[in-house]
Specification:
The complex is a heterodimer of chains A (398) and B (209). Chain A has 398 residues and is α+β, with helices and mostly antiparallel strands. Chain A folds into 2 domains: 308 residues, 2-Layer Sandwich (BirA Bifunctional Protein, domain 2); 61 residues, Rossmann fold (3-Layer(aba) Sandwich), CATH 3.40.50.800. Chain A has 12 helices and 16 strands. Chain A has a 9-stranded mixed β-sheet with strand order 1-5-6-12-11-10-7-9-8, sandwiched between helices. In chain A, strands 14-13-15-16 form a 4-stranded mixed β-sheet, with helices on both faces. In chain A, strands 2-4-3 form a 3-stranded antiparallel β-sheet, with no helix packed on it. With 209 residues, chain B is α/β, with parallel strands linked by helices. Chain B has 2 domains: 116 residues, Periplasmic binding protein-like II (D-Maltodextrin-Binding Protein, domain 2, 3-Layer(aba) Sandwich); 86 residues, D-Maltodextrin-Binding Protein, domain 2, CATH 3.40.190. Helix content of chain B is 34%, strand content 31%. In chain B, the strands form 2 sheets. A 6-stranded mixed β-sheet of chain B has the order 2-3-1-4-11-5, sandwiched between helices. The radius of gyration of chain B is 20 Å and the shape is elongated. Classes of the chains: A alpha+beta (398), B alpha/beta (209). The interface between A and B is medium-sized, with 21 and 21 residues.
Chain lengths: 398, 209
């Protein structure tokens, strides 16, 4: 007995008509924007060897991957991310390419989300990767592309930046085990102040613990840098902060009045392979980030090619949701005309339809054997014009 | 005035304590007190909208961002996990997760795998995982105390407030698992998009705890 032949798996859905129009429009807008800035598109396979994602740093826990085996019994996964496959290609086929490389992509990623949480297991991500430059102008180029992406989508947005290096430097100066460091990271990520304070108190009171305690509270506008400055214990960390401040100021200028640029020094997510700048984008009306990215200078070296990189991805599904909720759902356009062929006139009718299309009209062929049904169908589908080909004269009805 | 900030409260005792706290801050919570069967209620002078929900749902609504903030017990947070900021320990609703067995039972003896009955399988699993101990976890929906009495389980992991129910049924706490209290959680995007309003409210709350 078949139980599941009429439904789709949890976390997936069919998209129809207007939903497709919205999604394609967003994808095309972003891809065109990226291409106009010199990024070249690449497509990686939907299936990859598990090894590609099972690097030393294990960014993706195995329980969140869709797994299957190939004909030789080797473990495959459905791509949970586009950046790591792109890193693989850069370290292999693009190893001799001229740097910097500017790549873009528009593809689906698959992750198993907890059941019954209303989340999608299948997410379309459209994004860029800028590979081979560590300069500030590269960071700025990527941020400005993110700002332009948000502007192109045309809704109230907020772009946030952070620098994972600040946390890494601070926690590196703490005499703590890896497990303790991971707990500190987790508490900062969750902005869980009470537990963070308790845990850090066990390391005594000094510049480092003071700064770590304040880190998750350091978010907002330009004033954050003033507050952070006093907390940073040494010149190395202050330098990172200054770098971030320069980028913040430039980004705010680029953004103008179209959106909001903020900073959060407590952005320390684990699944990230990021080593420096971090970028997030938010839209009013969506409870999770719609842009996620950052600098990942060590990732490609895990594939044997030591080269810096930075990029971001836009969660197209999330943006579709916000657009659909906003009520500006586009109506699916009706065809302009329908052509009906009397028996024996089919070829002529097909030619006539093609001629009309060449004049820019959307034209359907009528697939009925009597004119009455065609008229009814045209009315139902809101097609304004019925063209009848009966071998003598062409008749048009409005 | 801007759109109100939506705060989801766990129905029951945490709801009463939170409303008490909001009144202490000087907000008029008449609508919430006289709610009848309504589930969304205004606190106009605070530009707040109170949503009443079950504990697990508070987390779901906050995660999705349809509520900006929520008040929920640490017990639910530990069991459900999720992506949100856990900003304030509100201090009320205090109790603990504990491991309890029949009085006098030597839980850690022998090499047999122990069976644990609980309403909180994730909490129980991670507690024993940290000890490197393999256990069999059985999810129970109602009075968990029954399971060891009926000899379905060797022990239970459950919320303990006063311990009276345990005592009356011949059970005792043999180990604390984690302390529990009410937490103020905030959606990760709301905190950023409405930073000034939310920070102002949190500051007020912290001053009045």
């Amino acid at each position: 007995m078949r139980n599941y032949d009429l439904i789709t798996p949890e976390g997936t859905k069919d998209l129809l008509f207007g939903e497709c129009i919205i999604r394609r429009k967003i994808e095309n807008t972003l891809l065109e924007l990226f291409k106009s800035r010199g990024y070249s598109e690449m497509i990686t396979p939907g299936l990859e060897f598990y090894d590609v994602f099972n690097l030393n740093s294990r960014y993706f826990p195995q329980e969140n991957l869709y797994k299957l085996t190939d004909s030789k019994g080797r473990l495959l996964v459905m791509r949970p991310d586009s950046t790591m496959p792109i890193a693989r290609v850069v370290a292999t086929r693009l190893r001799d390419a001229v740097l910097p490389l500017k790549l873009c992509y528009d593809q689906t990623v698959y992750r198993t989300e907890p059941a019954l949480k209303g989340r999608s297991d299948e997410i379309v991500q459209t994004g860029i990767e800028l590979i081979g430059s560590q300069l500030k102008i590269a960071d700025l180029e990527v941020i400005s592309t993110a700002v332009d992406s948000m502007k192109a989508i045309g809704m109230e947005f907020s772009l946030e930046i952070g620098h994972i290096g600040i946390f890494k430097e601070l926690v590196g100066r703490l005499e703590a085990t890896d497990k303790e460091k991971e707990r500190i990271r987790k508490l900062i990520e969750n902005k869980n102040f009470p537990a963070l304070n308790d845990l850090l108190d066990t390391f005594g009171s000094n510049h480092i613990t003071d700064a770590l305690k304040k880190l998750p509270a350091l978010f907002g506008g330009a004033e954050v840098f003033e507050k952070a400055e006093e907390l940073m214990p040494d010149e190395n960390i202050k330098r990172l902060l200054d770098e971030l401040r320069e980028i913040y100021e430039d980004a705010a200028e680029l953004c103008g009045n179209d959106g909001n640029i903020t900073v959060d020094l407590g952005l320390v997510n684990k699944t990230d392979y990021y080593t420096g700048l971090i970028i997030k984008g938010y839209l009013e009306g969506h409870g999770d980030e719609v842009i996620s990215g950052g600098r990942y200078d060590k990732l490609i070296s895990e594939f044997g090619y030591d080269i810096p990189a930075i990029g971001f991805a836009v969660n197209v599904n999330a943006i579709c949701k916000v657009v659909e909720k906003s009520g500006i759902f586009p109506a699916v356009p009706s065809p302009d005309a329908i052509v009906f062929a009397e028996s024996g006139c089919e070829v002529e009718a097909l030619r006539t339809a093609q001629e009309l299309r060449e004049q820019g009209e959307v034209v359907e062929m009528a697939l009925f054997d009597d004119l009455e049904s065609v008229r009814e169908y045209a009315k139902e589908r809101k097609i304004g014009k019925v063209v009848v080909i009966d071998g003598e004269n062409e008749e048009e009805e409005a | 005035m801007s759109k109100p900030i939506r705060i989801a409260l766990t129905k029951g005792r945490l709801e009463k304590d939170t409303v008490g706290l909001l009144e202490k801050l000087g907000f008029d919570c008449t609508a919430v007190r006289e709610k009848g069967r309504k589930l969304i209620l205004p606190v106009p002078d605070a530009n707040l909208e109170v949503v009443l929900a079950k504990a697990n749902d508070v987390i779901t609504y906050v995660e999705h961002g349809v509520c900006d903030m929520g008040v929920v017990g640490k017990d639910t947070i530990m069991e459900m996990k999720g992506k949100f900021f856990e900003l304030v320990d509100l201090g009320f609703g205090r109790c603990k997760f504990a491991l309890a067995t029949k009085k006098g039972y030597d839980f850690y003896s022998g090499y047999g795998i122990k069976t644990i009955a609980t309403k909180y399988p994730n909490v129980a699993r991670s507690f024993f995982e940290k000890k490197g101990m393999d256990t069999e976890i059985i999810k129970i929906e109602g009075s968990v105390e029954l399971a060891p009495l009926l000899e379905l389980a060797d022990g239970i992991v459950d919320i303990v407030e006063t311990g009276t129910t345990l005592k009356e049924n011949g059970l005792e706490v043999i180990e604390d698992v984690a302390p529990i209290s009410a937490r103020l959680i905030v959606n990760t995007v709301s905190l950023k998009m409405r930073q000034a309003e939310i920070e102002k409210l949190i500051k007020l709350i912290e001053e009045n705890l």
